[in-house]
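BUG: 3D viewer hangs when loading the predicted structure for this chain

Environment: internal workstation, default settings.
Expected: structure renders.
Actual: progress bar stalls at 90%.

Input used:
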Amino acid sequence: MLSYQHAWHAGNFADVHKHLAQFALIERLMQKNSALSLIDTHAGRGHYPLEAVETARLGEYREGVLPVWQARDRHTGLLERWCEALGSLQDDPGTLARYPGSPWWFARAMRANDRLTLYELHPGEHRHLEDAALDTPHVRRLKRDGLEGLVHQLPVRTPRLCVLIDPSYEVKDDYEAVASTLDQVVRQMRHAVVLIWYPLLGDGRHQRLLDTIKRHEIAKVWRSELTRHDPAGERGLYGSGLLILNPPWQLDTQLDDAFTELATLYGDQARHTSDWWMPERP
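Structure tokens produced before the viewer hung:
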């Protein structure tokens, strides 16, 4: 299914949750000198103009990235550095006019020995990957199913691997497909670092992802869920979920602090919860 385009939702609270984790993860991984392969299975665009028709129509960024940006002078630590990076994308550093997609967050941190592969199957979205910010010899853009492409690349040639998996989940089978792909990554590169995003919807579909990972007995996974509203009676997205396989030491503590601050910014109903998710053996 190729109907989904992320521009409608760019900069919403789920993007902030996901990209803050991506930023922190890459920041930590870049502290080691060894080469890193970065793979984005559902890349979308390099960046999104917030006043573009698609993004401005729903304006979800106004309750996502905008309050974080407006409070940037009060942030410290991870959130402060994230906002500084966000400001570097703006033509006017004091005005939030563009929101970066996951390819930009990866590309900005790359070194000469790193490699980035961007998968995007949607023809319209794939065209936007020609963005100048991504125009380096070390970035590959492939119009191909990202989960299949990831498995095809395994094992990668560099010593380390970091993957972002964040499909739209419009296809119900995506939940099982993501879990199966994670299992194949673990089997071929057990030290790989994988960040998986999933939506929290009123129908609880995300449980299929978690249950399938449990059946595969995949351990060393940290889970984070940021909810904006009480799920009772919610038909749409009420929260955002992340799974991180093999997170660097103390990254969970760092993200807990940042996400708790996010929840405070998002109002009284917002909550962040996390745990080390170790599937139980039968």
